[in-house]
């Protein structure tokens, strides 16, 4: 049995982020970064946002001024400023342009160093993000089936109908605004992600607003009636998806909003959401927003598991790439409400006679489903409330189409929470 995957980056930034930082230090705009590195401007904005987040600074100028240890040189190259020196001059992007910074928030992913318990219900960290349990190639069979429907492409905005159902503002505008939307398909079968890419503007000026990441499944849409009843969609499909875009509870309103544009994803087109007297209008936004979409008629998630599972994964991936991510297991049941006296839900030690099988998939990318056996022995058994972080890899198929995707991860054993997190597959 042999380990697989590339080594983790030993630096605070990834090799691509180092390249972007060098261009920031040279005073390059997002458009110039995109041209110099042969990436989209939206991807350049994402990398800039990731750099600001990792360095703990608020502006590009502060990031450029941070003194960092010398980066590891992964390949020889001309200085990055030279790559754009001969390019045509590109007008600097307006300050505060909207971007897609999906890496800002995680689904509670690993960030802590190894430490001992600080409260009675908080256990020792057996393996941290700095020293995770390594992936070992242990193929296993699984009862799970892929969620991806082969041959179905991502939805283009031109083939979708975006309806603004209602909108408003909490606490008389002092806190946050919301917009309820419904998405329908007027073209051939296609899929959308569990979130919408939203661009907010104030009197024509695009605002810098980062999205939270969400952990739901992609949604397959079939062309059908707005109000079903005459016919039913094909298996795995729905006629519409509904959800809410709202100012994040992590970031109350700070800036007025006069325009809202939504997209199914980068490079997939966009449309304006236009309010009217019936729908009302959200009036403000903060530094972050949250957008969730669900198939019609679906409700909340499932419970009953006794081991919590969390994902920490990149926000972007590319066809043919191997993506490194983390899975955290917490031997602790989720918090649930009950009427006193509440039953004792203290966990027992988690002992593995045999390491469990898991399955993983990039939803929407045909051929990405795989199953394996967890490398559990380095942390076997897990005491009550203990946490362990496992290093994982997933291969993006070389023919994966650009668009939304969801990294989903689960165990065949129902004791474990299934989890997922959205990401984008870029060209």
Tell me about this structure.
By secondary structure, the chain is mainly beta. It has 3 domains: 15-85, Orthogonal Bundle (Arc Repressor Mutant, subunit A), CATH 1.10.10.10; 125-149 and 303-426, Sandwich (Immunoglobulin-like); 157-295. The chain contains 5 helices and 23 strands. The strands form 6 sheets. Strands 2-3-10-15-7 form a 5-stranded mixed sheet, with no helix packed on it. A hairpin with a 2-residue loop joins β5 (197-202) and β6 (205-206). α1 (15-25) packs across α3 and α2 crosses α3. The protein is globular, with a radius of gyration of 23 Å. Residues 1-11 and 70-120 have low confidence and may be disordered.
Describe, in short, the structure shown.
The protein has helices spanning 15-25, 30-37, 41-55, 60-65, 80-85; strands spanning 125-127, 160-169, 177-185, 190-192, 197-202, 205-206, 210-211, 219-221, 237-238, 240-247, 255-256, 259-263, 271-272, 284-285, 288-295, 308-312, 316-318, 322-330, 357-363, 370-373, 387-395, 403-411, 419-426.
């Amino acid at each position: 049995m042999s380990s697989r995957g590339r080594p983790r980056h030993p630096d605070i930034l990834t090799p691509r982020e180092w390249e972007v930082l060098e261009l920031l230090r040279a005073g390059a705009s997002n458009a110039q970064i995109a041209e110099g590195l042969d990436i989209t401007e939206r991807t350049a904005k994402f990398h800039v946002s990731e750099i600001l987040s990792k360095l703990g600074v608020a502006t590009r100028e502060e990031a450029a001024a941070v003194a960092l240890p010398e980066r590891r040189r992964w390949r020889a190259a001309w200085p990055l400023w030279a790559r754009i020196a001969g390019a045509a001059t590109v007008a600097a992007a307006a300050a505060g342009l909207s971007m897609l910074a999906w890496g800002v928030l995680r689904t509670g992913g690993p960030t802590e160093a190894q430490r001992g318990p600080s409260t009675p219900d908080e256990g020792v960290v057996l393996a941290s993000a700095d020293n995770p349990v390594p992936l070992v190639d242990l193929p296993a069979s699984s009862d799970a089936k892929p969620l991806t429907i082969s041959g179905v492409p991502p939805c283009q905005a031109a083939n979708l109908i975006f309806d603004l159902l209602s909108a408003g503002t909490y606490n008389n505008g002092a806190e946050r605004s919301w917009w309820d939307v419904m998405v329908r398909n007027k073209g051939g079968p296609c899929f959308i992600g569990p979130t919408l890419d939203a661009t907010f503007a104030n009197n024509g000026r695009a605002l810098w607003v980062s999205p939270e990441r969400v952990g739901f499944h992609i949604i397959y849409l079939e062309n059908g009636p707005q109000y079903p009843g005459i016919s039913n969609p094909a298996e795995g499909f729905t006629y519409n998806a509904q959800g809410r875009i709202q100012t994040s509870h992590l970031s109350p309103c700070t800036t007025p909003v006069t325009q809202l544009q939504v997209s199914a994803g980068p490079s997939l087109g966009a449309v304006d959401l236009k309010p009217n007297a019936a729908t009302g209008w959200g009036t403000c936004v903060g530094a972050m927003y949250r957008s969730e979409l669900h198939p019609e008629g679906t409700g909340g998630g499932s419970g009953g598991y006794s081991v919590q599972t969390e994902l920490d994964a990149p926000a972007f991936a590319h066809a043919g790439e191997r993506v490194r991510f983390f899975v955290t297991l917490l031997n602790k049941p989720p918090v649930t409400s009950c009427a006193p006296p509440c039953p004792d839900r203290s966990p027992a030690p988690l002992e593995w006679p045999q390491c469990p099988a898991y399955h993983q998939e990039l939803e929407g990318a045909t051929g990405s489903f795989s199953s394996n056996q967890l490398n559990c022995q380095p942390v076997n058994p897990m005491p009550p409330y203990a946490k362990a972080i496992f290093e994982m890899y997933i291969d993006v198929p070389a023919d994966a189409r650009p668009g939304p995707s969801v990294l989903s991860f689960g165990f065949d054993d129902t004791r474990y929470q299934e989890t997922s997190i959205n990401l984008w597959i870029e060209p």
